[in-house]
Amino acid sequence: MTHGTPLSRRQFALLSGAVLSGLSGAAQAQAFPARPITLLVGFAPGGITDALARMVAPLLSDELKQPVVIDNRAGASGSIATALLAAAPKDGYTLGVISNGHGHNKLLIKGIHYDPVADFSVVGGIAQNPMVVLVQPSSPYRTMADLIAAGQRNGGLHYGHGGTGTLPHLLPELIARQHKTQWVDVPYRGSAPALVDLMAGQVAFVMDLLQTSLPYVEGGKLRAIAVTSKARVSQLPNVPTLAEGVLPGVDAQGFYGILAPAGVPQDVLAKLQGALARAVRKPDFVDRLHAAGSTPITESPSEFMKFVAADGKRWTDLIVALGLQPA
C-alpha cells in the first residue's frame, strides 16, 4: 500500500484556509438576505410606479424573509434613482424599479452617465399597463383614422401629454410619422392637467394609461377610441386596438420591472429573480393588477431585459429622428 507525500504545515494551512473561505462564501450566499433590502423608486409616492412597488414589496419580503423598504428618490423621469442604483454596492441589498423611460432617458436628460443595459443586472418584470386614446364625449373624432385625417386636412391638431419623451408623447409622434399627418404636441407637467384641458376642449386628444384614465371613461367624462395593447382589454371590450388599424402589430404599454446593479453575485441574483417570479404570479397580486387594467410580466429575466433593450432602441431612434434635445 502506498501513501502520498505528507503535507507541509504551510501547505496544510493554505488548504485549510481555502476550504474555510469556500465554506464562508457558500454560507454567505446561503444566508442572503441577512438584512433589509432597499427598493429605489424614481417617482413620488402616489403614482403608478410607486403603487406597484408598494404592491410587490411585501410579497418580496414574504419570499425573502426580510423587509423590503421603499426609498422614493423622485426626479428627472426616474433617472436620479436609477443613477443611485447603478452606483450601489453589488451585493443585492439595493434594487430599483424601472419604467418606460429607462432605455432613452439619457437622450433627453443631461448628466446621465449609466448605460441602461450594461450597468444593470435584471431581476425581472413586474407588470404592464396599456394606454387609452381619449377624446371628449362630444368630439367629432370617433376613431384613430378620424384623428389622422383631421391632422392631414388641418395641419394643426393639438394633443396633450404629461412630458416630453414619455410614452404618451412618443407614440402619437410615431403614428404621425408613419401616416404623414400633422399633430402638434402640448406638454404638461403630468397627465392630470392634460386630462383637465382635454375635458375643457383645449386639446383634441390625450393618450393616458388605462389605470388612471378608466374612471374618466366609466364616468362619461371622456371617451376611449383606441387602446395601445396588442389585444383588446376586458374593461373596454368594444374599443379597438391600434394594431387593428393604424399600427399593425404594435404593442406599446407602460411597463415596470426591477433591476440590480451589474455584478451582483449570480447566486444572490438567482434568489432575487426567483422571489420576484413567484411574487408576480400570486393570485391576489394578479387579481389586483387585472382590476386596474394591468397584467403581470411573467417572461424570464433575460427575455425581459431583451424587451427593455428593444423598447429603448425603438424610442431612441424616434427621438433622434425628431431631433429632440436634452433638457
TrEMBL record:
Superkingdom field: Bacteria
Keyword Signal assigned: yes
SUPFAM superfamilies: Periplasmic binding protein-like II
PROSITE patterns: TAT (PS51318)
Keyword ATP-binding: no
Signal sequence interval, chain numbering: 1-29
Pfam families for the chain: TctC
Gene3D superfamilies documented for this protein: Bordetella uptake gene, domain 1 (3.40.190.150), Periplasmic binding protein-like II (3.40.190.10)
Keywords for this protein: Signal
PANTHER family listed in its UniProt record: BLR1237 PROTEIN (PTHR42928:SF5), TRICARBOXYLATE-BINDING PROTEIN (PTHR42928)
Homology family: Belongs to the UPF0065 (bug) family.
Record's protein name: Tripartite tricarboxylate transporter substrate binding protein
Organism: Ramlibacter agri
